[in-house]
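Bumping my old thread because nobody answered last time. Still need a sequence for this structure:
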């Protein structure tokens, strides 16, 4: 598990290497939901998503002589770009194992940051190959199930509290659960009365299924368009954090996420991923839990949507 002190240490470790993203009020969404709504614009983070926070914290925690041997990661999404970027900034080699079905924009961006990309049949196959790399001295950065990664992601929570001391509710996306766990730990440690609402999409709902079963459940396939939420299973660690801190997990449809994505683009002028716009879709469902005096933060965790995908989204 992680503690507030771990997140505070992570903030000092990564200071100057990541962006401090803005928290913007939205009159349009406030009127729509009948409460005060704010957008945590983490899609403006370096590499377009929150993942660099955790990747930097993990990489900088590895002794320099060991770090020089290289970094390896598994990802078909934002974690791939984050690790590649971090490695390039620290002057070390990186290899990213990516599923063959990974969208082209993620492949190009990851290679653009200097990583060697190796395509494999699936994420499961990629994880099976990691011990081979570790035996050769490579340093593995897990996409979510690592306390140092989670602590880095939790720095988003510290920023929210600094910018909105009166926050009452935070809506956060869940993939493997590391981001949720870090953010929730930071916020609940400092302000226990703040409610944390988790969100997943249908076909990428590993946490909702795990909560229902009381144990991690392996998804046979990821069918949601929200690919960056597509962890095949959450971990025991992230499940425990969800059980401890979350009010609930709302599972929205791809259609709801796309409608929310379009609304955010047209009215807030930000282009998110479905993995981020789903927080607005969930807030629509949760509006009965908010009052006119609530202060609700929607975390827009990433914005790496390919134009071709955007044009193909249907509502």
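Sorry it took so long. Here it is:
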């Amino acid at each position: 598990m992680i503690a507030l002190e771990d997140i505070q240490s992570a903030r000092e470790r990564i200071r100057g290497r990541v962006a401090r993203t803005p928290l913007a009020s939205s009159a349009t969404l406030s009127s729509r939901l009948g409460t005060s709504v704010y957008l945590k614009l983490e899609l403006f983070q370096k590499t377009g998503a929150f993942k660099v926070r955790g990747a930097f914290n993990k990489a900088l925690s590895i002794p320099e002589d060991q770090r020089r041997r290289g970094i390896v990661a598994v990802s078909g999404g934002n974690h791939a770009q984050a690790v590649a970027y971090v490695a390039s900034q620290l002057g070390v080699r990186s290899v990213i194992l990516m599923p063959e079905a990974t969208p082209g924009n993620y492949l190009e961006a990851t290679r653009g940051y200097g990583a060697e990309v190796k395509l494999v049949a699936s994420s499961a196959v990629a994880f099976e190959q990691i011990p081979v790399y570790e035996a050769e001295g490579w340093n593995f950065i897990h996409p979510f199930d690592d306390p140092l990664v989670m602590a880095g992601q939790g720095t988003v929570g510290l920023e929210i509290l600094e910018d909105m001391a009166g926050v009452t509710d935070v809506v956060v996306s869940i993939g493997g659960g590391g981001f949720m766990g870090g953010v929730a730990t930071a916020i609940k440690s400092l302000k226990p009365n703040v409610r944390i609402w988790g969100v997943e999409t249908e076909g990428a709902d590993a946490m909702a299924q795990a909560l229902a079963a009381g144990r991690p459940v392996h998804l046979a396939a990821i069918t949601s368009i929200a690919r960056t939420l597509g962890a095949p299973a959450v971990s025991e660690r992230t499940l425990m954090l969800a059980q401890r801190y979350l009010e609930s997990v709302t599972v929205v449809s791809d259609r709801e996420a796309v409608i929310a994505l379009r609304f955010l683009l047209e009215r807030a002028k930000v282009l998110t991923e479905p993995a981020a716009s789903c927080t607005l879709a969930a807030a629509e469902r949760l509006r009965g839990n908010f009052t006119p005096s609530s202060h609700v933060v929607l975390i827009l965790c990433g914005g790496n949507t390919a134009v071709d995908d955007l044009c193909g989204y249907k509502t």
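Residues 52-143 form a domain with the Rossmann fold fold (CATH 3.40.50.1100). Let me know if any region looks off to you.
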